[in-house]
Structures are given as structure tokens and as C-alpha cells.
């Protein structure tokens, strides 16, 4: 029930009369815009959940930008595991420690490249065992499509152990969600 003022005009909010057709068209346009925006987002971005038993980074859910493949040291990227001793089809998310044209060194505690990137990366006991068995290098001169990839967990299988990665296997740049 609407209260009327002395002059016969309603007091308060009066719902404007709109046709059902106008409401349907408005709803359809909003839905179409939302669908277009979501499609555009999902064409470029994917959610990547790291299900590997020994994650390379302490995060486990990433937003993967499949169009951005220009990388520099310090960036996080996701890469297919089709190289080195990782022949599986897992997606690994790792930090870039070096790119082509850079020299990367590992002194047992820090990974450092010739452009000034330096990251604390202490090894686990297994690394020393593998270093003896496989004569693992501690210095890499990157050329061509080579990347030095690293993790921030003690159990990361990164370029110190599995060797340099091939940039052609990059799926995109990764951003931590959780």
C-alpha cells in the first residue's frame, strides 16, 4: 500500500513501469557481456594446480598467463616436464634463475647470475649424493633457448639437478594464488 500526500502524489519510491521485453533484453545484454569477458579471460589465463609430490615452490595454485612468454630472472613460469630426467607430462612451476646469454653459478647456498640476480637456495642431503654420483655442475653458461630454473623448496628438482630447460616448453608466466 502506498501512502499519498495531500496533493495525491505518492510518497517514497515508486517502481517505474518497464516492459517485460525491455527487462529480457537488458538481462540478455548483461549476460552476453559477462560471457564475452569470461571467454576472453579464459582464452589467455588458466588456473594451474601443482600436484607433483615434491613441489618446486611453496605455493600450489597459480594463475597461468599463456600469452606472456617473455621472461627474465625472478619470474615464475610453468613448463611442461618433457625435458631432462623429467619425461612425464606434469606441469612444473619454477622460478627463472637465468636466461640465454647469462652465466649462472651455484655456490652451495645461493644461485646467482651474471646480471645480478641472487636467490638463497640451500640444498638437501640428496643433492650432495647426486652431485657425487652424477658430477653435477655448479656453473652454467646459457645460450640459445636455454633456461636455468629453480625452486624454493629443499626438495625441488631444478636445473642444479635435472639440467637446463628448453624455453620452447614454457606454458606461460605464473602468478601465485595460494
UniProtKB/TrEMBL annotation:
Name under which the protein is recorded: Peptidase S26 domain-containing protein
SUPFAM superfamilies (UniProt xref): LexA/Signal peptidase
Sample GO molecular function, one term: serine-type endopeptidase activity
InterPro entries given in the database record: LexA/Signal_pep-like_sf, Peptidase_S26
The Peptidase S26 domain, residue ranges: 21-176
Organism per entry: Vibrio vulnificus
GO BP: signal peptide processing
Keyword Repressor included in the entry's annotation: no
Sorted UniProt keywords: Membrane, Transmembrane, Transmembrane helix
One Pfam family it belongs to: Peptidase_S26
